[in-house]
Input
Amino acid sequence: MMRLWPRSLFGRLLAIAGLSTVAALLFAGFTIGHVLERFVMRGFDDRLDAQVAVIARAVRRDGTLDTARAVDLPGFDERGSGWVWQVEGPTGQRWASTTDAVAPIRTRPQPDRPPHPRDAADPVPGESRGTAGEPLHSRTLSIATPAGAVIVTAIGPRRIIAAPIREAMAPLLLSLLLLGVGLAIATLLQLRIGLRPLRALKESLVEVRAGRQRHVPRDQPRELAPLVEELNALIDQNEAGLAHARQHVANLAHGLKTPLTALALKLAESGRDADGSLGDMIRQIDGRVRHHLGRARVAAPGGGRVRTMLAPAIADLIAVLRGIHAARGIEASIFVPPSIGVAVDPQDLDELLGNLLDNAWRHARSAIRVDVVLKGTAVIVSIEDDGPGIDDAAIAEAFLPGRRLDERGDGHGFGLSIARELAELNGGSLELTRSPQLKGLRADIQLPAQ
Output
């Protein structure tokens, strides 16, 4: 179903302002045109009324016309101009201006006027057609004489009215067009300036989500102040709830730590775990506890994420892993700019990168590579190895908790799932692909830059 209104506030306000402006300009054009027509018509009627007054003074008491006193005013004295007058006597006599030989013209009064009122003190307007069918406008006056009523009519061509109106409408329409363009520009500026606080509010929320600010600034326009108060209250509520949940998870984990340690020591005694299956189960339980502890450590939005520099963090992890896997002789190539940091807790970063680097070291044949690049507000950490890698179908299964695609070694299958969850809970992501350089597995970790 087609939407009648845009989804954005800017689009809706712009559409309403545009429609209102077009309606206002159309109304203004119609009104000004009507006023202009009335103004031109008034001058036209004044000219006809002046001729009617001159002819009226030439009417004798016996209802005849004194032609010597019937003077033609300018326009009426020019043959072919279309300006004529005529007089109808009480006995059917007829006199007309000498400038044009015209057939008798019967004027048609306007609908709201009575036809040729005999007692009218002022001329009455009317419309008619000439001998060639051209539209004419007239003014008619009825003069009472002892012999009867004498009808005096002055007639002019309507083109005299249309010409100045057309001439005036061109600059009028141009002015209205320029006014419309000006109003459109003013509307765009108004919307840009008026909606600027919403854009600032969005930027503030981005800062809160990235951990650079704890709350949205309260210095907002009056209309947005209640929304900002609710957002800050929601941030505080979420932070308190998450802190409460983290505390509960931490308490549970610490409560399980001692029994698990004691159980592991008991199983280590001779003969209690002959095949090692019970010890493996203890290690899986320990892995799950560490997994949920890692989730609980992730700071809430606005919870004060700290800046962690990548170069020293990765260097420390590489040094530890070189010692753990010294027998394998893996060559590690590290390319980390010293000035790049991420908005991730150092302990979370160590667990996230440590799991991925340990996986790469265990599966590499001879080399691993670590690259760090900054892309806008995100940092991309790429960890590659020259091991066998995994195919596309197995990538989705690799993130399942407890799922091991390689049964060699002492892993428990939680490393990749923990790493992915830590990346996502810190506002980032983790993707696995095939390394184009080393031909093994490549892990791309995207984290928010700080």
About this structure: The radius of gyration is 48 Å.
